[in-house]
Amino acid sequence: MEKKRLTGINRRDFLKLAGGFSLVPLVEKPESGKKWLSQSGQSLPNIIILVLDALSARHLSLYGYHRKTSPNIDRFAEKAAVFHNHHSAANFTTPSTASLLTGKYPWGHHAYTLRSTISGSSAQSNIFHYLHEKYHTAAFSQNLYADKLLFQFEQYLDRHLPADSFNFSGRTIYTRLPGNEAVAGFRAYDQFMLNRTPERGSLFLSLLHDFNYLLRYRLAFRDLGEMYPLGMPSVDGCYANFTLEEVMDGVISLLDGLPTPFIAYLHLLPPHSPYRPSTGFRKVFNDGWEPPPTTVHPLGDVTQGDSPKKRQLYDEFIANLDNEISRLLEYLQSTGLLEKSYFILTSDHGELFERGELGHSTPLLFEPLLHIPLVIASPGQKRRIDIRTPTSSIDLFPTLLAIAGVEVPTPTAGQVLPLGNREGDHSRDIWALEAKNNSTFGPLKQATLALYRGNSKLVYYHGYKNYKDQFEFYDLDIDPDELENRYPADPAAAEMQAKLEAQLNKIRHQVR
Fold first, then answer.
1. Are 298 and 364 spatial neighbours (Cβ–Cβ below 8 Å)?
2. Could you tell me how far CA 155 lies from the centroid of its own chain?
3. What pLDDT, on a 0 to 100 scale, did the predictor assign at position 339?
4. CB 478 within 8 A of CB 464
């Protein structure tokens, strides 16, 4: 039975209930009154978007990584289009997911910070808005920060599963609020209950929340300790636990019940930290391998440096996830859905284990953070196509509209992806922005802006005290690991610098 959100509860009631800790699904919401499109006579293809959070292309064997982390994705890609030069528009969840779903760069949707939402006009311009007349629209995100964006699109969603739908333990009450109250509920929950910042909004409520979680976790983990030697996978800081198996079972059950044609947006948290592979994958890469060493960046943490142990755990967790994805692919193949659907596998951003950074909470924009996978299987595709044209996460928006036969609105920052044998634009400019320390409503006072042109990459650090107004230039063709900063010696840097400075001057004073 599908879990639906609670209606008829206001902010004050939510805050009262938040301390009660009966964080379980409460009531069923009636089905939407939409007239479903018939299963028979389907002409439009289904669209399945699988987003794997914090998955760096640099860690997939599909893209030549040293460890065999993705054998099942590798096999699947033999009958799909593989994009080798695909980049995220940002290096963490909120802006990168907003860009993927709206086709806008961060300065177009203004979701700069972790807790921010998409600006009003941009929130109306999203994938579900343009497709919901033709498609049954369904969405599920384990990542709470991506899920809060889905609440902004709720009027265009026929089915929006709560983020905790497939958890083994742990519930989030705000997901049962009405759509217009859920974002406020999320912010209250995030500020008052979670341990994401040193200053927690309510010491009493948050401590009770911690105690409740520890009790529940001990009871839950008692039966699964042998399966997960490092602890159960969890929503970091949220006190919600899950198993990869149950999450994939839930995804399959969701797809199994959707009317066709449908578009399903599935945003899974793994391999996001904490990296907790199951027993069968723990130490599978205990090989002593390390990539070329890097130096600590001026904006990195000198106490961290490179982290081979964290990297290994991350790789093991990816392999664990890849094993579960094989079950999803088998389901799609056996039911014939793969023959009738576009299946898109990608990520919101990557992960970093070098330069003095672990994870993605950083002002840095190195390739492990921005280079993300994109694999697209078209209905009935029988062979692999390798596409090396520079592409961006904002390109998914116009591409899905084109697939559905919907006119792409103008102007649109993204371009329709070069599927099939079509060549893309090798000379186009691709951008990425990090601006999490700025106000969503004010000008950009501190930001990192990256510009890609072909295999050249220019990065500018704006407003940082310890690295003020610095440029870095890399030739990714000869230096894919970005070990040599060629600024200002490389002649290509000057032309790209003029373009970057003009772009920064254009966007830095834009406010929502």
1. no
2. 22
3. 96
4. no
- DSSP, residue by residue, 91-140: SSHHHHHHHHHHS--HHHH---SSS----HHHHTSSHHHHHTTTSEEEEE
Alpha-carbon 129 to chain mean position: 20
Nearest C-alpha neighbor of 102 from the set 363, 306, 395, 356:
395
Q: What's the per-residue H, E or C state across 36-61?
A: CCCCCCCCCCEEEEEEECCCCHHHCH
Cα 333–chain centre separation: 25
Q: What is the pLDDT of residues 377-392, one digit of tens each?
A: 999 999 999 999 999 9
> Which H or E run contains 497?
helix 491-507
Preceding peptide of 363 cis, ω within 30°: no
- Are the C-beta atoms of 424 and 389 separated by less than 8 Å? yes
State the angle between helix axes of 93-102 and 396-403 in degrees (0 to 180), rounded to the nearest 10: 30
Closest by CA to 119, choosing from 397, 512, 412, is 512
Q: Is residue 344 classed as helix, strand or coil in its secondary structure? A: strand
Going from N- to C-terminal start, the domains of the chain cover 45-168+224-507
For residues 256 and 2, the answer to whether their CB atoms sit within 8 Å is: no
Helix (H) / strand (E) element for 367: namely helix 367-370
Q: How many CB atoms lie within 10 A of CB 121?
A: 11
CA 295, CA 324: separation in Å to the nearest integer? 36
CATH topology of domain 45-168+224-507: Alkaline Phosphatase, subunit A (3.40.720)
What pLDDT sits at residue 424? 74
Closest CA to 261 of 337, 331, 157: 337
Residues 348/74, Cβ–Cβ less than 8 Å: no
| 268 bridge partner residues | 52
- Best CA proximity match to 326, nearest among 127, 120, 79, 76: 76
Among residues 481, 501, 483, 503, the alpha carbon closest in space to that of 493 is found at 501
pTM of the model: 0.87
How do 159-161 and 447-453 pair as beta strands? unpaired
Q: Name the residue with tokens 């634009």.
A: 425
What residues of the chain score a pLDDT lower than 50?
1-41, 193, 195-198, 200, 202-204
Query: What is the per-residue pLDDT for 219?
Result: 59
Q: Which SS3 state, helix, strand or coil, does residue 7 take? A: coil
State the Cα–Cα distance between residues 390 and 445, nearest whole angstrom. 29
Instruction: Give the C-alpha distances (Å, rounded to integers) separating 142 from 12, 148, 372, 433.
Output: 26, 11, 19, 24
Q: Helix 244-256 vs helix 308-335: angle between axes, to the nearest 10 degrees?
A: 30
- Between CA 319 and CA 70 the distance in angstroms is 6
